[in-house]
Each structure stands twice: as C-alpha cells, then as structure tokens.
Write a structure and sequence with these properties.
This protein is mostly beta strands. Helix content is about 0%, strand content about 50%. Strands 6, 10, 11, 12, 13, 14, 15, 16 and 17 form a nine-stranded mixed β-sheet that branches. Strands 25, 26, 27, 28, 29, 30, 31 and 32 form an eight-stranded antiparallel β-sheet that branches. Strand 20 and strand 21 (about 270) form a beta hairpin. The protein starts with 13 loop residues before the first strand and ends in an 11-residue tail after the last strand.
C-alpha cells in the first residue's frame, strides 16, 4: 500500500519503488490505483517484468489530504508481485526543498498495534504533525489516543489529549488525523480490530525547533510485533558538526532502555507510548539495549545547526534481530550525495554493494558500521550473514532517510 503524503510542497508526485532482491528470479509486478471516493482498485498500466537485482519506480499522483483531519475512501495505491520484493516510498523522488522516504511494509505483515512517531511543528503556518491509516479489511474498527489535541475534519471528530477517537473503516479507506498548529502527535497509541497501514509524518519541521530549515518527515511505522530489545544507534553519515537527535519510544509499560557506551540521561524508564528525547554530539554512536520492546527513531538536524547541507528527516532503527542478507534499494534523484549505511556484526562475512566489498567500518559495541557513498540510482547489497542497511541522501536544504529492509519477524509477542 502507498499514498501520496501531505508535504509542505505538494506539487511533485511521490514515488513507489520496488526492488527485486532475487539473484535468479524475475518478478512480475503490477501497480493498482484506487481513485478518491472509491473502494475499487483498477490496474494502473501493464505489469512490469523486474529482472533480478533491479528496481522500478511508479509515480503516485493522487490528491493529498491537505493540512487537516479527514476520513475518505480511496486516493491510494497497491502494488502486487508474484515473488517477494522490497518496496520504498520517496516523497518525492527528486530533490526539492522538502523530502523524505519510507520503507513500505507488505500487506501480509501489517499489524494492529502502533505508536506514532512525528515531531513538534512550527507555531507559525499550518504545517501539522499527522498520522495516516489505511484499512485492508472491511469493518475495521480503529481507535487512537493522542497525547495532544487533534483537529476535526470530514468524518473525523476533534480529540482532546488523552481521550480516544474511533472510526470504522472498510478496505481502501484512508484516515488522516492532524494536530493543531505547534502540535506533535508522537506517542499516539493506535489499535485496530484488523491489520492496518500506518504512517507518522509532518508537513515541515525544524530539528531542533530553533534550527532552520524545516523539512517534511515521514515513516511507515513498524507495528509493535516487530519492535526489539537491541539496536545499533549508528549516527547518520556526517555532514559537518551537527548534533544527532534521537527519540526512544516505549513498547510496553515499565521498560528500561540503556545505552552502551552510556549516554547522558540514560538509562531511561518508559511506559507504552512514552518517549524520551536524546541529543548526542557529532559523530557519537552507541548500542541501545532494553529489558522490553522499544523503538529508537533518529532525526536529522536542520542544515544550519552545523551540517551545512541536508535538513530534517526521520527514520526508525531496525532491531538487530530483523537484519537480512539481501537488499535492493534506490536513491533519490538530484542529491549531492547518497549513502548506504551498512551495519553488520563484528567478524561476520563481507558485505558487497553492486559486487564491491564494503570497507571502512567503525565499531559500535559488537557491531560495525560503514557509511558508503553510492551513485544515484538502483543498488544491490548482499552478504552470507544478516546485516542492516539505511539509505540516506543529502543536498542543500533537504534530505531523505529510511531503512533498507528487514525480516519482518514477530519478535515481540503481544
């Protein structure tokens, strides 16, 4: 599933990118669209034959829900393949003043319990923090409990902080819930009676609030089923002297999250949906270890904080228990530099990108990290052992970042 997401600049189409990680099989991939106001999908163009270790980009042009809360039918897309593939969304693909990217979760792996990640928005201008839900089954009851007030819109009531909103959705219905100006819907707890697709986002945020420039942020949220207890807190590829900004979300009540080497303010105790903001100095990486499920999210700082390029972006960390052996990913277009950040266990087998062995690692606990500059376009990374990939791109006043994929194993029994 995918939908064009509300951005400060909505003039450019979003991109749905599919990658075939197989080294031997060709994937037959079909894009379907569901028009706004409809719950019926139709094939969008002819099927695409995706040969091994390559990618294809589809364009998403459906109207966005602009700066408010709305429940509507349709206005979204679905992609289907006859073999497993990886999928991403770039919003948009080409560099403009506000961009971000997300790893997309296949329909069979969607969950029914989520915590929203977003960020506090500007007090001036209507650029809300928001989340989006897409239903995949008829008669899906969805409820959400936000930590701050939300605005009303077509089919959606305003909800006060700590209260619970509810709607019933059918397949291909789309719900967007927006904050008031200056709000932050991070920590919203979402539960449903059937699996749902959830994105946390904001039109344009400054990270931190006093640092320009603002940028669009988005992530398709990992359901609580996939949250882990160990993560590599690898800092984003260096741009300059910027600080590194983290938000740690609790996945159940009464958990404790520590860092190694220890970072100021940790260990921290969290309940379900609570989060803790952690800021560390340039070039600092560490391990996150918890006694229960949690999720670290990294936010790129605005370029005027010392980075000199790029701007805010938001991306979830992937638990070490969700690493896989093969990835096919695509960079954005028009960026000054694109990186594949490789994370592997110390002593594991070589990782290659497009057949070239990765080198230049630095150590973080029992793992090591390499920030590999890659050319614009499609790339294939693989190893005999599981490893992680984060895809990152920087150019003047914008950036994107997202995980390259994951195993989607239910490592957190609910």
């Amino acid at each position: 599933m995918a939908a064009k997401l509300d951005n400060f600049n909505d003039s450019t189409a979003n991109a749905l990118i599919v990658g075939n990680t197989s080294s031997t099989l060709t994937a037959t991939v079909q894009l379907y669209s569901v028009a706004t106001g409809s719950n019926v999908e139709v094939a969008s163009g002819s099927p695409v034959a995706l040969v091994p270790e390559t990618s294809h980009t589809f364009s998403l042009t459906n109207p966005v829900i602009e700066s408010t809360s709305t429940l509507r039918s349709g206005g979204l897309y679905r992609v289907e393949s006859d073999i497993p593939i990886i999928a991403y969304q770039h919003s948009p693909l080409g560099a403009q003043a506000t961009n971000d990217a997300s790893m997309l979760i296949p329909e069979h792996a969607l969950g029914s319990s989520y915590i929203v990640s977003s960020y506090r928005t500007q007090l001036s201008g209507n650029y809300p923090s928001y989340f989006v839900v897409i239903a995949v089954e008829d008669g899906t009851d969805v409820e959400w409990t936000p930590p701050e007030n939300t605005v009303a819109g077509s089919g959606v009531s305003a909800i006060t902080a700590g209260s619970t909103g509810t709607v019933t959705m059918d397949r291909f219905d789309m719900l967007q819930v927006a904050s008031y100006q200056g709000g932050d819907l991070s920590g919203t707890i979402i539960d449903s009676t059937e699996p749902i697709w959830v994105v946390g986002a904001s039109e344009c945020v400054n990270v931190p609030m006093t640092t320009t420039y603002c940028d669009h942020i988005q992530e398709q949220m990992l359901s609580l089923d996939f949250w882990g207890t160990e993560y590599v807190g690898a800092h984003s590829p260096d741009r300059g002297t910027e600080s590194h900004h983290w938000r740690i979300f609790g996945g159940q009540n009464g958990i404790t999250v520590a860092t190694n080497p220890p970072q100021a303010g940790t260990p921290v105790s969290l309940n379900l949906g609570e989060y803790y903001d952690l800021v560390v100095s340039n070039g600092t990486s560490f391990m996150f270890i918890g006694d229960g499920p949690f999720l670290p999210v990294q936010y790129l700082e605005g370029q005027n904080g010392g980075a000199g390029t790029g701007d805010p972006s938001m991306y979830q960390m992937v638990p070490t228990g969700q690493f896989i052996e093969r990835y096919t990913f695509v960079t954005g277009t028009g960026y000054a530099v694109n990186y594949a950040q490789i994370i592997r266990a110390v002593g594991s087998n070589d990782v290659t990108i497009d057949g070239i062995v990765v080198s230049g690692y630095y150590t973080v606990g029992s793992y090591e990290v390499a920030d590999v500059a890659v050319s614009q376009g499609s790339h294939h990374a693989e190893s005999l052992d599981p490893f992680g990939v984060v895809s990152v791109g920087y150019t003047g006043v914008t950036s994107y970042a997202c995980p390259g994929g994951m195993a989607l194993k239910g490592i957190n029994p609910l």
